[in-house]
Amino acid sequence: MRGMIEMALVVFGYLAGSVSAGIVVARVMGLGDPREGGSGNPGATNLLRLGGRRAAVITLLADALKGVIPVLAAQAAGIGGGWLAAVGLAAFLGHLYPVFFGFRGGKGIATGLGVMLAWSLPLGIGVLLAWAGVAALTRISSLAALVSFALAPVGCLVLIDAPALAIAAGLMAVLTGWRHRGNIQRMAAGTEPRIGKR
Known about the structure:
With 198 residues, the protein is mainly alpha-helical. It has one domain. It is built from ten helices and no strands. α4 packs antiparallel against α5. The model has no long low-confidence stretch (mean pLDDT 90).
């Protein structure tokens, strides 16, 4: 019975992650499919380019909640350790490969941050501060994401001594690098868009 509850929460995490806020917000606001415009990513940064600050903020908050809610539900059910890590990773994977949108999702930064904030407030704040610091210095959202998520596994070990979460955070960091491979190429070429540029 316990195992069924844990598996159900992992599935819930994936399904929650699969609700692509950027696509929904863009449709409601008449912006079209964000996967077909701007950077082609249905995340907050691209919504900022396509629809302005309001669209970006709504998308950011909704995508973060997709990570927060499943993890909090798992914690409320008394689940920890590897299963808690799996629930958070499932929500992240749902955003990247959403079953409701043809498995074409975003890059998972807001959802991943939501997961980490729910795993541990100090961990989430640390990752958020790392993102904000790099973003403020460079104005490149993708670089901020890559650096902050690369530091997340270290934060899991140093700040909260959670090896299972560190493994999940490490997988999230690897997937973040893979999903940002085009951004990495553009950064190397000096053509990566800056934050706020449409």
